[in-house]
Design brief:
mainly beta; four-stranded antiparallel β-sheet; elongated; 1 helix; 8% helix
């Protein structure tokens, strides 16, 4: 499986040890940098993209969060973690001419939390993620 970016980071968690829970509280970005705000998340987190786009009418990339808990007890500890969207944007432009937009979705740990999405990564101004399905 192709990986267009990966980030390993250690986090503190407000839940008990042995929990593989993660929570994305917010997303923001500018240029090729997307930042994800994780809260109540311990252990190693791997954020990746598999190199594909879904939905032909409104193309988007789906980020995957893999989380391995370290078994620590800790606070909310909000942290902004960067992810480089440059490779996926260049890959998308090679297949889709300007001005086709590219969305991005990050799945939640549990569906009832709702995913976070960006409608178009090709924005000149800073952008924020919003809740989505």
């Amino acid at each position: 499986m192709a990986r267009w970016g990966s980030l390993l980071a250690f986090f503190a968690l407000g839940c008990g040890g042995g929990n593989d829970y993660y929570a994305i509280a917010d997303m923001r970005g500018e240029g090729d940098t997307l930042e994800l705000k994780f809260v109540y998340t311990c252990g190693v987190i791997d954020i990746s993209w598999d190199g594909t786009f879904v939905d032909k009418l409104q193309p988007r990339a789906e980020l995957t969060v893999q989380h391995d808990d370290l078994g620590a007890d800790c606070d909310e500890s909000p942290r902004w973690i960067p992810f480089d969207t440059g490779p996926m944007k260049r890959h998308f432009r090679a297949e889709h001419p300007w001005p086709a937009p590219l969305g991005l979705r990050v799945a939640p740990y549990e569906e009832e939390q709702g995913a976070k999405c960006v409608r178009n990564l090709f924005q000149d101004a800073p952008f924020r993620g919003k809740g989505c399905k």
